[in-house]
DNA sequence: TAACGATCTCTTTTT
DNA sequence: GAGATCGTTA
């Protein structure tokens, strides 16, 4: 790993940046943004302007001419974060950001493998398995190997395989400890063979293939090493072993890596994330400068005090304490209820009051530890007629009907995709039963071919039905040649019989609507996103392939043309299928509506809200019982709680319940130990602290419950209403300080007149979505864009 | 082979 | 409580 000796650093003053770009940065942020090209670790606390630093850094590097857009790679974990970065960058830079290598680890790997599919040993139209697909693929392997599903639980086997890949291990690399692992490794090998045969890759495979190709192909590695002068990694604390090794492959001797992370927000150790990567990075990249961003711009003092006090109970920390200049703000409110049901009722009342006081519902988040907890909340919200939106849970592209439609589409692209084949071969039912399928699978296994290729081997009625199915898919492929993506999907939904099936189903209405929504999603994908974004095939594969086969390593010949302009575009359908697999898609509830935000704490990472409710703070739930066995687990739960607390800007509620329905039965819970780790001075109990059963409150509640009349005003009766919060009115300002609000007309020098649709974020991070009519819809960073309010 | 009901299990987090 | 799986029946 080569480094940058200090005598080669640019002298004193950094290259001049355009006015405005570096404004409003505090000294630490400024240092991070304008650091000379060398490896650096940025310890960025919650709400310390981490994303701002990352994006401003990229913009600064480009605008000062230190690197071209093609020389930057920025990696994130979630699609949300990647999108956010692109949005902010496009507001800061006058150049198209589309061709830049900014995306999730998996998104970038996909891009890489699409470009070098041949070298990677993949079919050009390889498909991506999501976790569901992976599970069913593993099940098939286990069945095919005649293994006992009791001993080889498909889920655990899937876990095992994913874990191996995250450690960069192929079957041959895995240490055989006992008979069971030996068998597991066999399953792993068989699974790999099956995936390869079917031309599909799972999430781990995307990473591992990319890593291996970079490792084994020197020409390719040198090319990318030279290309990426600046590599920026977001949420570095969440990287696993493989991702870190991957990063080391892409970082060449001339590259500068900026790793941004927060060890206190490491909440994915359970799936392989290694916080230790931060220390390893510091050592292996010989980082001589660690920049700490400790000033918090998000939350008031009491909230921050709570977060700091809590996290101080963890032992292994890199050390960091958040501070703010915003003043103490309101105390953290704590509520104890008698049941999860009562908790939901109380929460709704409280949220309604806030809404009446002017807090947007979308600025109120309800967080919980596990998805199962959302049910009670949802039904209470539904009954109260309050709009809400649940994040997580079943996402759009994971719904059964959507997966069915996608399976047909995938078969059009790749008939050998057995996972998809099995999913829809008898859906809607067409007389192909378990027996027939078994025969088909036997035939396929015997000949080592795909199900599609083996159809002829099955005789009798089942065989005829199978032939009809294959003919149907072939006919769909024929009929959709040359159609637009929208038309293709519409055709498939009809021709497959899915539409008819759901039309006659009694509960099929919603599913039909979702299928319509799929058509819309495809349409939106083509027009707005520009489907080439993730699926541009770079025209280098042949050349690079030639090098691999021993011709002189004319590295210059591998030079990549700027992706977006000359990239050969794969079919819209293929691109859309990739999109569907890589981005599960928010479950697109009532989009655009002002709705309460419900999500798990994990899903909330990286987000912020004016008001946050953290519910279900009970032993066994939060911290979760599965994590209590070891100290590491508990520390991770604490970090999770830390993440939850630091989501709140202005008001934070913590609630726990004495009883809770779980697994269909009532459990009696003790309040979470985390309460004992919060500073009393920052808290305010809004119910008597030691209220036990048998209190008057309890009797009222029981009575109301037994009458079936609900709780109405009973819960929470008798306590002082809170005064309306002064901060409730939505505010944002132009870079000149003029007030802005949604619905407001504005003027922009380049885009002309527009109307603000939504405002997100606040302060330096505030941004607005503005409809500029014929100039289209734009997201602009308000601290950067020059906007003038106009009278409407 | 399909449809229905009974039974069983598993419930942390996700690209 | 819900989903997947299993078993019975037509």
TrEMBL record:
Keywords: ATP-binding, DNA-binding, Helicase, Hydrolase, Isomerase, Nucleotide-binding. ATP binds at residues 44-51. Residues 23-300 form the UvrD-like helicase ATP-binding domain. It catalyses: Couples ATP hydrolysis with the unwinding of duplex DNA by translocating in the 3'-5' direction; ATP + H2O = ADP + phosphate + H(+). The keyword Transmembrane does not apply. Gene3D superfamilies: 1.10.10.160, P-loop containing nucleotide triphosphate hydrolases (3.40.50.300), PCRA, domain 4 (1.10.486.10). GO terms for molecular function: 3'-5' DNA helicase activity; ATP binding; ATP hydrolysis activity; DNA binding. One of its GO terms (cellular component) is DNA helicase complex. One of its GO terms (biological process) is response to radiation. Its EC number is 5.6.2.4. It comes from the Bacteria. Residues 301-606 form the UvrD-like helicase C-terminal domain. It is an enzyme of class 5 (isomerase). The keyword Transit peptide does not apply. PANTHER family: ATP-DEPENDENT DNA HELICASE SRS2, UVRD / RECB / PCRA DNA HELICASE FAMILY MEMBER. Belongs to the helicase family. UvrD subfamily. This is DNA 3'-5' helicase.
